[in-house]
Write a structure and sequence with these properties.
InterPro entries: Fic/DOC_N, Fido, Fido-like_dom_sf, Fido_containing, SoFic-like. By secondary structure, the chain is mainly alpha-helical. Helices cover 60% and strands 2% of the residues. It folds into 2 domains: 44-150 and 164-281, Fido-like domain (Fic-like fold); 296-366, Orthogonal Bundle (Arc Repressor Mutant, subunit A).
Length: 371
C-alpha cells in the first residue's frame, strides 16, 4: 500500500500449474504450428524476403492494440518510402510508433544472434527504440519507471484504476528475477513458460509507457532465444488484438484470482492460431514469388532480384530499389517499368517524377485490414 493505493507485486515464477488434458492438447497443437514455421527456414534461400512482411504485420497488430488509429501495413511501408501518411498528428504518431516496432524487432533478434544476453540492458535499449520520435519519447525511454501507474482508460484517477502494477521500488528486483528465469530456460513446456513470462512482464509493468509492445516483443525474442523459431516468423499480436478484451481480462484474472490455467490456455491458443496463419501467409508469399520468378525466367538477373525486393518491400520507390539492389539506375528503372507494364506493380501517384509503386498481390496476402 502506497499513499492509500494498493500496487500489485506478482510472486516470482514459476507458479504451481495444473496440467489438464485440455491444456496439454492445446500446447501440443501450438508446438506443432511453431514447428511448421521453424521448418520454413530450412528450405528458404532468402529468409528475409518472407520475414520482412511478417515483422511488419506484427508491428501493425501490436500497435493497433495500443492506439485508436487503425493502422495498415501500407502506412508503415509508405513512411519507409519517404511519405508522411496519416491525416492527423495522432495518426502520424501512431504510424511512427509502429515503424519503431519494426526496428525494435530487428534490433533485438540481431543482438541475440550476435551473442547478446536477454537482459535488462537489451530491454532498455529496445524500449528506447520503441519510444523514439513518438509520443512516448517524453516518458523516460529506456529507464525504469519511478512512479505508480494505473491500468485503465485514459484519464482514470489512479485511486480508481482497474489495476495498479508493481510499485517502483520493487521493479528492479522483480525484473531481475524474471530475466533470470528466462535465461535459465523453460520450467514447463516452452510455450507454457512463455505465457507465464508475458504475464509477469506486463504485471511488473517496468516502464512508464510501451510495456505492452515490449512485452509482446519479448515473446518473439524468447521464441528465438530458446531455439523454437529461427527468426521472428510469428505475429501473436494479431490474436491479442482480435480478442483484446479477453486478452486483458485473462491477464487481470491471474492477478486477482490466480487464474493461471485460463490465461495459459488463452495464450497457447493464440500461438497455435497465429502459427498456422503465419505459415499460410509465408507459403502464399513463396508461391507468389515462384510464380513471378517463372514468369520472368530469362529476363535477366536484375528483374529477378527486383522480384525478391518487391516482396520484401511491397511499397517502394525507384531510389529505394536502386539502393537495395546495388544496381545501376537505368537497369533498375527498366525492370520496374517492365513489372509496371505487366501489372505486377501499380504506380500510386500519377506523377511523371518521384513515382511510388505498390505490389497489390503481396499486400493482398499480408495486409490484415484491406482499406
Amino acid at each position: 500500500m502506497i499513499d492509500g493505493i494498493f500496487a500489485f507485486s506478482p510472486d516470482p515464477l514459476p507458479p504451481d500449474l495444473d496440467a489438464t488434458h485440455s491444456l496439454l492438447t492445446e500446447n501440443g497443437d501450438a508446438m506443432y504450428a511453431v514447428g511448421q514455421l521453424s521448418d520454413l527456414d530450412t528450405w528458404l534461400d532468402s529468409p528475409e524476403v518472407i520475414l520482412s512482411p511478417l515483422i511488419h504485420r506484427e508491428a501493425v497488430e501490436s500497435s493497433n492494440i495500443e492506439t485508436t488509429t487503425r493502422l495498415t501495413l501500407s502506412d508503415i511501408y509508405r513512411r519507409e518510402a519517404g511519405e508522411e501518411p496519416g491525416q492527423t498528428e495522432t495518426e502520424r504518431a501512431d504510424i511512427a510508433e509502429a515503424q519503431n516496432y519494426v526496428e525494435a524487432i530487428t534490433t533485438g533478434i540481431t543482438a541475440l544472434r550476435d551473442g547478446a544476453e536477454l537482459d535488462r540492458d537489451l530491454l532498455c535499449r529496445l524500449h528506447t527504440i520503441l519510444l523514439q520520435g513518438a509520443r512516448g519519447e517524453r516518458k523516460n525511454p529506456g529507464e525504469l519507471r519511478e512512479d505508480l501507474v494505473g491500468i485503465d482508460e485514459p484519464g482514470t484517477p489512479l485511486s480508481e484504476a482497474r489495476f495498479v502494477p508493481t510499485p517502483p521500488a520493487s521493479i528492479p528486483y522483480a525484473l531481475r528475477s524474471l530475466l533470470q528465469y528466462i535465461r535459465s530456460g523453460p520450467t514447463y513446456a516452452p510455450l507454457v513458460d512463455l505465457a507465464l513470462i508475458h504475464y509477469q512482464f506486463e504485471t511488473i509493468h517496468p516502464f512508464q509507457d510501451g510495456n505492452g509492445r515490449l512485452g509482446r516483443l519479448l515473446v518473439m525474442l524468447a521464441l528465438y532465444k530458446w531455439d523454437l523459431l529461427p527468426g521472428p516468423y510469428l505475429y501473436p499480436s494479431s490474436y491479442f488484438n482480435a480478442n483484446r478484451d479477453a486478452y486483458l481480462d485473462n491477464l487481470l484474472a491471474v492477478s486477482r484470482d490466480g487464474a493461471w490455467t485460463e490465461w495459459v490456455s488463452f495464450f497457447v491458443q493464440a500461438i497455435a492460431e497465429q502459427g498456422r496463419e503465419a505459415y499460410t501467409v509465408a507459403r502464399e508469399l513463396l508461391a507468389l514469388r515462384d510464380r513471378y520468378q517463372d514468369q520472368y525466367q530469362g529476363h535477366g538477373v536484375v528483374i529477378r532480384e527486383l522480384i525478391d525486393f518487391i516482396i520484401e518491400h511491397p511499397y517502394l520507390t525507384e531510389p529505394q530499389a536502386v539502393d537495395g539492389l546495388n544496381r545501376s539506375q537505368p537497369a533498375v528503372n527498366q525492370a520496374i517499368r517492365r513489372l509496371w507494364d505487366d501489372g505486377v506493380l501499380r504506380e500510386t501517384t500519377g506523377q511523371q517524377r518521384n513515382r511510388r509503386y505498390e505490389v497489390p498481390e503481396v499486400l493482398e496476402i499480408v495486409e490484415p485490414y484491406n482499406p
